What does this fold into?
Amino acid sequence: MKPLVVLILALVLLGLRFLRLSRVLWVPVWWLASYVFLVYGIEPPLPRSIILMFMGIITLSLLAYFSVDSQTLSAAWGAIVRFVTDRRYTIPLAMVVVALPAAVGWVAYRNASKAPNPPLFGRTIHPPPPIEITFKGKKINLTEADNPFRALEKSDPDKFRQHVARGRVIYFQNCVFCHGDNLNGEGLFAHGFDPLPANFADPTTIAMLQESYLFWRIAKGGPGLPEESAPWASAMPAWEKFLSEEDIWDVILFLYDYTGYRPRAKESLE
Amino acid sequence: MKQFQRDRFLPVENDLSAGAAPSCTARKIRRSWFIWLLMTLVPATLLAQQLGTEAQREKGRQIYMKRCAQCHGEKGDGRGPAHDVFLPHPRDFTSGLFKIRTTPSGELPTDEDLHRVIRKGMPYTGMPAWPSLSDDDITNLIYFIKTFNEDFASPYAQPTPIKIPEPPAFTQESVERGRKVYEANRCYDCHGNQGRGDGKSAPTLTDEWGDPIRPADLTKRWTFRGGGTRKDIYRTFTTGMNGTPMPSYEIPENERWDLVNYVYSLSRDDPNYATMVSAVYVPDSISLAAGRDLFAGAPPALFPVVGQVIEPGREFYPGVNAIEVRAVYNASKIALLLTWHDMVADRAGSCGPGLPVPRFDPQHPDTAGRFCDAVAVQFPSEMPSGQVKPYFLFGDSRHPVDLWFADLGKNTPRLFEGKGSGNLSETDKYGLEMAASYNEGEWAVIFVRDRQVSKGLSFQPNSFVPIAFSVWDGFNHERGNKRGITSWYYLYLPPMNQPSPVAAMAKYGALTLVVELVLIVVVRTRYREEALESRGQA
It folds into this structure.
C-alpha cells in the first residue's frame, strides 16, 4: 500500500464530506476512489484481471446500496430526472452528452489500433511424474527410488559433505547459467527463456517435491515433460546427455543443502 | 591516507613550536616520537577499522566460502570450479585489479566501490546482484576479500577516491560537443564510430590475463558493467577499468560531461525486449532490391539472445546478446529484416547449423578452424493447430521446423528441415531469397519468400506464427550447436484490410450518443407527461 495515495484519497473524501453532496453523487465518487486506490494505491501493482474483478464487485455493491430501499432509489432517480430536465443543468448535460461518446470512442480507437496479444497457454508447472524412467538403459522406478547418498547424512557426515561438494561443482559448471548463483532462477541467461528457470529458493519448488521427482526433471529435462507442461518451450536440458546418475543425485543434495530445505518425505507404503 | 597524515601532522608541529621553547634535542626526540606515533599507530588504528575485526573477517569468510568461492576460488584467485564457463572470467582478488572504482587508474577500490559491485552485480556477466545479503554481510565480505591482496593493508596503497560532481543538464548541444570529444580521444578505435563496440582494434583486445575481451557496445547501456547512469559513465572513463584495455582519460572537466552526454545519447534506457514482432502490410511489391527501405514503416522488436547451453556443443559466452527483427508482407510475399551487433564481420570459413562441435573441454579450447557469421530464422514446418509447437531447438521428430539459414560467408540462403539437434537436412529453397550487409558493427540480413509455398509453412494474414532465432558469431568459433539462441516468440500478420481504428471509434461513439439521446428523450417526455398530469389534477 502506498500511504501517500491513501492519504490523498482520504483527504479528498473528507473534503467532499463538507460539500453536502447528494447521495447520488457519492456513488461515482466512491467508485472512482476505489478505482484510484486499486490502480495506484497498491504496491506491487495488481494485475488488470484482479482490478477488473474487484471493480465488478464494488459496482455491484454500490448498486445494491442504492436499490436497498425505495427512498434512496427514488432520490437517485429524482436526481437523474432533475439533471436531464431542469434548465439549470442544460450546459452540464450537453457536456456529458459530448464527453461520454468521446471517451467511449477514444477507448475503442486505442483498442483497435493496438496489435492483439499473442495467444497465451496455461501450463502445468508440477506435472505428475511417470512411474518409471529409463536412465541410460537402466530402469529407475520413481515411486521407489530415493537418493542413495541421503542416508550418509547421518551415517557418514564426512562422506555426505563430499557428495554435496561434488554437487556444488556440478551446479556451478552446468546449472548456474539459468538457475543463478542464488539458486533463485535469475541466472545470466534466464531472461532469454520462457518459462523462466525454476527458483529453488522459493518454498513452493524443491521443498514440496521428492528427490526422485527432481531426478526425473533433471535427467529428462524439458523434452521429457508431458504435453500439458509445454515440453517444446522448456529450456531445461535433458541432463542424461551430460551427467551420470551419481552426478544428478549429488547435485540434488547440493540444492537442498544450499537452500536449507528438506525434500518431501516419501509416504510410507503400508 | 597521505592527506590524513599531513593534516594531523601540521597542527602537532605548530603546537610544539608554540610551546615553551624546549631544547633542540628534546624537540627532536619529541618530534620523532610523534612521527613514529603518526606513522604507525594512526594508520594502524585507521586500517584496523577498514580491515575489520577478526570476527568480522571470519563472518565474511563464511559467506565467501558459501556464495563466492565457486567462481572466485577458495584462495581468491578467480579459479573456482566455474572459472572456465564464464567469460569475462571471475575476478582474481589476489591481483588487486578491480574494474569498477571511484579511485584513479591502478589504485585499489574503496569499500563503497566493492559494496556497489556486490549489491548490484555486473550486468551480462557471471557476477549477479546480491540483494539477499545484508549491508553487514557485504561489509564483512569486503573485509575478507581484502585479505587476498596485501596492498589493502598497506598504508601506502590506500585508495584516494575522486569526487563525481552532480551531472549538469542533458542538452543536445552538449551531445554534439561530446561527439567531438569522442573523436578527439579516439574512443572509436575500440567502441566503433557508431559506438557498437566494433572499433578496428576491438578484435585484438585482451585483458591483463591474456583473455579476449570485448569493448562495451555503447548503444546498449543496460549491459554496462558499472551501470548505465550518467555518473556511472563519468566514473568509468575518468578512472578506467583496471585489468582491461579501458584506460582512464585526462580531459578537461567541462568536456567530461559532454562525452558522458554523448555516450548516454547513443542508447535508450531499457532493452524493452519484445515477445512478438508485428508485420506490416505494404501494398507495393516486395523485392530484395528495395533493401532496408522496405521496412521503413515496420516497428522493430528486440529479442534477447542467450547461449545454447542445452544440447551438447554448448556456447557459454555467445558473441551476440540481442537480435532486432522487422517484418512486412503483401498479397504474395513476406520479408524479414534481422539486425544485430557484431564486433567484426567474419566472412571467411564455413558455417552451418549442423556442423559438429567438440564437447566443452577447458583443457583443449575449441579454437581450430575458421567459421563465418550466420543467422537462422526458425518456423514450425506446419502451422500448429493447438498449442503444441516443435521443440524450440531445431524441432523434434514429430514436429519438424523450417530453418531459413543465411550463410554470411558465401552470402547465400539455405533451407533446412530440423527434426532436432543433430537431425537437420538441407531441402529445396522454395524461392527463399536473401541479402546481407555489414555496416559499422551491424549485420543486416533480409529474407524474402512467397507467403504460400507448395511445401512448408504458409503465412496467413491474421495469424500468430511461432518464430525463433539462432545467431552464430564466427569470431567465437560458433557453428552448429555452439550458437546464440532465442526461445519461441510470435510473428503476427495483421489482416490485409485492417479496419481503420477511426471506424471503430466512430461506431462506438455514435452508438453511445444514440443511447444517451434516447434516454434523455424518454426521460423528458415522461417528465412532461407527469408535469401535465399533475397540472391537470391541480
User: Anything to note?
Assistant: DSSP finds nine helices and two strands in chain A. The radius of gyration of chain A is 30 Å.
